[in-house]
Design a protein that fits this description.
about 210 residues; alpha/beta; Lambda Exonuclease, Chain A; 7-stranded mixed β-sheet; 7 strands
Length: about 210
């Protein structure tokens, strides 16, 4: 089974082509958003075990799932007094309605369930800019969506073709904008499609 990195789930949720560039082509570049995120993760990425608020806290914990072919590392896993694991994702920005991080959090929950033999009903996202902690329910709908993305990523990795470029509002904040060229490729695809379906009497023949 082709392994899928847990981090790929958030990339795919944000943009399948971004996921392909990173995980198939090993393309990476930094911008203000990725550098800000790297700064926030410096503390969470240091492997440490400590007690906080009556909970055992594991930072940078290696995680995996043989069932789903997942592997990666969790920013933070808190263990409640009864041993219940709670994955926590660190993000640099403020709380926002997008659900890309929830997909990655669910993938972590799937790994922890297999590793510790405990159902993980919820996790959390901590937003550094606003110092807010958002509880995320790991419900059936989120699980199905996450498992579907795992299968889609595995199919992409098994093939040899990047997902098509799609130019939209998310592109302006993407660090891979210049490597992807979404606006140029989207225009070229739309132009080719327009010519393909152009009525025969309007096509210039030799």
């Amino acid at each position: 089974m082709e392994p899928v990195l847990v981090s790929a789930l958030e990339h795919w949720s944000y943009c399948p082509r971004q996921c392909g560039l990173i995980h198939m082509e090993s393309v990476w570049d930094e911008n203000v958003f990725t550098l800000r995120g790297k700064g926030v993760h410096e503390r969470a990425d240091e492997p440490i075990t400590r007690a906080e608020r009556g909970r055992r806290v594991e930072r940078a914990l290696p995680i995996w799932s043989d069932r789903y072919g997942l592997q990666g590392r969790a920013d933070i896993v808190e263990f409640l007094p009864d041993g219940q694991p709670v994955p926590v994702e660190y993000k640099s920005g403020k709380a926002r309605p997008e659900r890309h991080s929830s997909i990655q959090l669910c993938a972590q929950a799937l790994c922890l369930e297999e590793m510790f033999g405990r159902t993980v009903p919820e996790g959390a996202i901590f937003y550094a800019a606003s110092q807010l902690r958002e509880v995320v329910k790991i419900d059936e709908a989120l699980r199905e969506r996450t498992i579907g993305m795992i299968e889609a990523i595995r199919a992409m990795l098994a093939g040899d073709e990047l997902p098509a470029a799609k130019f939209d509002a998310k592109c302006r904040n993407c660090s891979l904008l210049h490597a992807c060229l979404p606006q140029t490729l989207t225009r070229a695809r739309e132009s080719a499609a327009a010519r393909l379906f152009q009525p025969a009497d309007e096509v210039d023949l030799p």
